[in-house]
Amino acid sequence: MIDTDALKHAIKLIQCKSVTPLEAGALDYLETALSKIGFDCTRLPFREAGTPDVDNLYARIGTSAPNICFAGHTDVVPVGDEADWAVPPFEARITNDILFGRGTADMKGSIACFVAAVENYLSSLTRELPGSISFLITGDEEGPAINGTIKMLDWLEQHGEKLDHCIVGEPSNPAEIGEMIKIGRRGSMNGTITIIGKQGHVAYQHLANNPVEGLAMLIGKLLGEPLDTGTSTFMPSNLEFTNLEVNNEAVNVIPARASARFNIRFNDAHSPASLEQLMRDRIKAALVDTAFSAKMTVRVSGDSFVTQPGALTDKLSAAILEVTGLTPELSTTGGTSDARFIKNHCPVIEFGLVNATIHQVDERVPVAHMQTLTAIYGAFLQNYFSQD
Length: 388
Fold this sequence. Notes:
Blueprint: H1 5-14, H2 26-36, E1 40-43, E2 57-61, E3 67-73, E4 94-95, E5 98-100, H3 104-124, E6 132-138, H4 149-158, E7 165-168, E8 180-182, E9 184-185, E10 187-196, E11 200-201, H5 211-223, E12 238-245, E13 253-254, E14 257-266, H6 272-286, E15 293-302, E16 305-306, H7 311-324, E17 329-331, H8 339-342, E18 348-350, E19 364-366, H9 367-384
């Protein structure tokens, strides 16, 4: 078995049952580990009526610029049925040099590599740290994302804490460490469309107007016309219907309403406002010359963004090439992350472990991958603070 400092940190973190929004000792462990190497740590618990209470951690060493921030989350998704797991999900068991457990890849493993890399870098310094290193760790990324990173960033601004650059440790690689850096993400819009018909007896269908038929027709038309063809930095926007609801218990009644929930992952061809208007225009056009009407509600959880290639991507790419021999793809694929909030404060990119088993039963990561990731983060720190 490969024995690394990152592995030791990962085991301790995984053994904390921090299913969102529980802290379960994960932030306590990080606060202790970072305090030991000179970080000033601040716990930031936030609460808001109707939402879960969330604990968070900001830690910084150094007082001067530039401040490179490592951001991530210690909360994890539920494990599902524990009986389906080959190993207990919070035991952090190692089998054949593979670490199993909830959060190994998403993203306690990356946080462990952050900490180990920083420990190694600080111990190698022969001069004063030429800048600052910080950690922005939330317990609310897998939850509503209300009492976590957003409020932490507000707190930083209120207290004069400036982030110059940020790496989020989300699992960015499809199969091999070093394949991909995420430089942006599509936005996410959730919505509900309700078709309003006319209730009636199924045997007298001519006296009613079945909204299920209208909804089926509308879904077909909306899916039949692409939202766009993609842009120079993003793949095409994607509309997916995720739930259908009628709430009709009777078998002999045509319902009055039928609803469908949807999600759109949208690129920079749209703003949230323009995308909402596009959907409304297409719904209206689809229902012309029918007896149906429709209502739509939407909620946007994040806009699209891209961090243009530059010093930050160059320094991380150089570190990846040095450690692995790979030249990473700069990508905007995948789902949302807390980078969508951080991008309003500083340039932000994402780079972490392989994402093949995230949110799955038997989530796992090869220990060797953690060793490689730690080395990449360490080489990046050397590059970032280089005086060249």
